[in-house]
Amino acid sequence: MTLLLAIDDVRVSYRSDHGLLHAVDGVALEVAAGTTVGLVGESGSGKSTLAKAIVGLAPVTRGAIRHRGVDVSRARGVQLKRLRQSVQLVFQDPYSSLNPRLTIGQLLAEPLIEHFPLSRSARQREVVQLLELVGLSAGDADRYPFQFSGGQRQRVAIARALAVKPELVIADEITSALDVSVQATILNLLRDLQRETGVAFLFISHNLAVVRYLAQQIAVMHLGQVVEVAPAQELFAAPRHPYTKALVDSVPRLHRRDGRSARVEGDLPDPQDPPAGCRFHTRCPVGPLVDPQRTLCLTQDPHAGATARPHRAACHYVPETSEELSNAAGDRSRA
Amino acid sequence: MARLRTRAGIVLGSPTGLAAALLAVCFVAIAIVGPSIWGEAAMRIDPAGAYHGPSGGAWLGTDGLGRDVLARTLAATRLSLELALAATAIAVVLGVPLGAAAGIVGPRMQRTIGTAISFGLALPGMLVALVLVTIIGPGSLGATVAIGVALAPTFARTAQTLAASIAESEYLAAARVLGVGRRRLLLRYVLPNTAEPLLLQTGVAGSLALVLISGLSFLGLGVQAPSYDWGRVLNEGVDALYTTPSAALGPGAAIVLAGLMFTFMGEALARSMNPLLRIGAAGRCSGRLAAAAASPAGPALDAGPAGADLATVRVQDLHVSFPGGSGRREAVAGVSFEIRPGEIVGVVGESGSGKSMTALAIAGLLPANAQATTARLEFQGTDLARCSPRERRRLLGTSLAVIFQDPMSSLNPAVRVGRQLAEKLEIHAGMSRGDALARAEQRLAQTHLPAARRRLRQYPHEFSGGMRQRAMIAMGLMTDPALIVADEPTTALDVTVQAQILDLLREINRRSGTAILFISHDLAVVTELCTRVLVMYAGRIVEALDTTALDRAAHPYTRALLETVVDLESDPEQPLATIPGRPPTIERPAAGCPFAPRCAEATDHCRVETPALVPLGDPQHLAACWARPAGTVATDRAPLEVGCE
Of B168, B374, B421, B459, which alpha carbon lies 20 to 30 A from B151's? Predict the structure, then answer.
């Protein structure tokens, strides 16, 4: 599989009143062509900032973002324009991401005007095709965004992103503002689009169930860092990082049979002043909170040991059992 | 679909727009022909006829040189309007680019420009104008430039604020990601979205410029003789204010009318820029006050089983409506249910199903333009619809707690958390401040907020989202409520924090038997927490059942909703079930069963008559569906007939 996007040790920093804030701090992640990578994490984990950094809307202060081998993390001018023809971003809120003053037809024509020399009639045809691709009709082109429901607007936003025929679409929480029944239609749409056009998705969400449904590979973010990356099935069957385990366990379920096991106490620490050592140790259910012997977590960053294995977890105390489990799963997938 | 209305149509469609248009036509006509018709009469000096009152020859009388004031007023129209427009144009041209620039430049330059604008705003406009006039020299040109410069800072500030908000908007970010060029960004994204407020301000500034220039002329610093504008004519008339007041009134009235024209014009043009109005979709709010009135007899429907007299809340035939285009629109259309002590009742439904309005109606917190009627709204045995407003406030204030989705907007940011918690007891129980604060600390500790005593002295912004929601819950617990109404209390929270808050609600319920009405769009959350579920669709309860019976859900909508939920058991290989179509809007309620247009099992009967909520075989299990008549036994879920996209 072709490697489309390789994020290597990326840091995104903002200047704040109290000094530098690293919203993304040393993230490594890869997206292969035609696949869906899920990115989960709580608010403040830096997942949206990472999305913005990929398309050049946030400043990368360290590391590289390679698009087909070319570092685009500091792209300008023509290079940036070429990147944006290949990588597109769909925002969370379909109410604020569509210019209220333009009709749907005009909104979809905007990227076409910028990227393709088309005649007016060819552009109209293209707009109609895009509308039909996302399940809207040609008649919708003359209407304004406020005449549509949230789900329909999100379809417009998706169509607009697809207008430039990108290889990768970053979807940043695109279903979290929608009702469940509408969410299902959008998720189905993304699946179908991937089958029809072969577009890759970086699907960002705080909803683990949704990410599990769409993604083949899942990365879990916590306080600006990726703490675990694994194939989707494996991540849920045998989560290795205690934070992942707690996240999975916190997901409300329709048919919960047993009680919860790992419960995380408290809230996310201040990203301005992240805890030393492992950033999760202040809330970790297996760390120094419960086992004072585990002082390693207080001083050592567990990322140092994490390598590019298919299942990597940044934890000093990965339980043996899940290690074996994941090995077994790995064997099965190789077989 | 409504056809697009033209801009002119919108302008003329509103009373102010029509008034502005009429005034503008008159003023422009007078400005064009005025000097040639009345110019001569206006200059004719007649020392014998000085300070004459109104007469057949001069309707407004004459001034100190015996000139006809009406003729002078009319002839001065052109110059007065020209100067006002020129000054406004100068203000716009100077102010808008400066302010807009502040939105695009770097942070340091931004601060510099911002400070300069603030400095300009701090100086009184008239003072600036006076100083500038003395520098440039009195006269039309000096006055116009001075007023233009004096008004520029207000435009700069407006443009700066607008540009800043647009620069942060997602649609601008989206356009940049799409590679839209800078010129198009300005022309298609920034300018159209600033047009409305800027036009409004231009109108106000036009009228202000007119008044200020007239003022300068009145003081002798503006238009110089032999030229004259309204300010000068006013000045000449004021000398004899007590003998011939009409000589001052004429130009005064002209200034007022022209000022109105500018303001109205700005308003009308701003409206014409609004795409909502172009489509004719914007509704009008009549702002009628809420009145929970008891309707004498509604269709009495017993939603609850025996032992109902113990109910914490009993609602019968609740309707909530809003003023709409034609008549009223019903957001809640006849809802009946009850909550018994210790029960956790979940209300699920999609946006627009009326679930929040139902909760707000019980809490007496409906928006001002909503109107609620009930056959019965009983809270702990007292009918709220029939007791005095004061008694209702006391009862709800002490026995009911409400938790909202956004804890930041429901806590007062300017008051310490401890004070906010204690306040309720000081008001309702007459407790002393010290005792109330002690109770507050205890309640905060009960919600597992660490270091409760220290937290009392903090402000809401020092709390994280989860801590604020705990503080809101603690506030609700201050009076040991019988019922907690929680409207999407975990929707804005992260999953790990959501799990903590759900644990807390469960604990409160178990410890003190507090009943909870839990509103959520998330079926999974509801099934985890609640003992009973009410499923709402289009303002009605379509199914009511115990959470354990969800596997045997009877109503096609409930079953479809359950199917669409993505959870950790969903098969990634299969497409998700969806519900075809869209829910009816309250603008266009469907006849018959509201779900019929989307239901695979619907018959002709469903489309005509609305089914009532009736108990199925199990008295705890109610459904409103013609395909599930009263007394039928609900079975395990059969394969669904809802469509898959």
Answer: B168
Residue of B nearest to A185 (CA): B578
- CB neighbours (10 Å) of residue B249? 17
Give me the domains of chain B, ranges plus CATH numbers: 77-227 (1.10.3720.10), 289-488 (3.40.50.300)
B603 touches chain A (CB under 8 A): no
The residue in chain B having the minimum alpha-carbon distance to the alpha carbon of residue A45 is: B494
d(CA B237, CA B358): 65
- The pLDDT score that the predictor gives to residue A326 is 47
Of A185, A246, A253, the CB nearest to B496: A246
Nearest CA in chain A to B352: A179
Structural tokens at position B377: 């709204």
- With CA atoms as reference, the chain A residue closest to B584 would be A149
List CB contacts of A35: < 8 A, sequence separation 6 or more. Answer: A1, A200, A201, A216, A217
The pLDDT value recorded for residue A80 is 85
**Judged by CB atoms within 8 Å, which residues 489-508 of B form the interface with A?**
494-500, 502-503
- Beta strand A217-222 pairing with A225-231: antiparallel
Of A12-26, A99-113, B60-74, B311-325, the range with the highest mean pLDDT is A99-113
- Our measurement of the distance from residue A246's CA atom to the centroid of its chain's CA atoms, rounded to an integer in Å, reads 19
Say if residue B291's pLDDT is above 50: no
How far, CA to CA in Å, does A298 sit from each of A25, A249, B241?
18, 25, 87
Q: Which residues on chain A are in Cβ contact (under 8 Å) with B579?
A: 181
**Does the interface ipTM go beyond 0.90?**
no
CA distance A301 to chain B (A): 23
Q: What are phi and psi of B585, to 5 degrees?
A: -85, 160
Show the tokens assigned to B481: 């409520």
Nearest CA to B87 out of B148, B151, B155 is that of B148
- How far apart, in whole angstroms, are the C-alpha atoms of residue B208 and residue B87? 10
Contacts A250 to B, Cβ<8 Å:
495-496, 498-499
Instruction: Judge whether B527 is closer than 8 Å to chain A, CB to CB.
Output: yes
Decide if B466 and A267 are in contact by the 8 Å CB cutoff.
yes
Considering chain A, what is the average pLDDT of its residues?
85
- pLDDT tens sequence across A105-162: 999 999 999 888 889 999 999 999 999 888 888 888 999 888 888 888 999 999 999 9
* Cβ neighbour number for residue B617 with a 10 Å cutoff: 14
Q: Can you give the three-state secondary structure of B573-611, one letter per residue?
A: CCCCECCCCCCCCCCCCCCCCCCHHHCCCCCCCCCCCCC
Task: Judge: A97–B171 Cβ closer than 8 Å, yes or no.
Answer: yes
Q: Nearest 5°: phi and psi at B294?
A: -85, 120
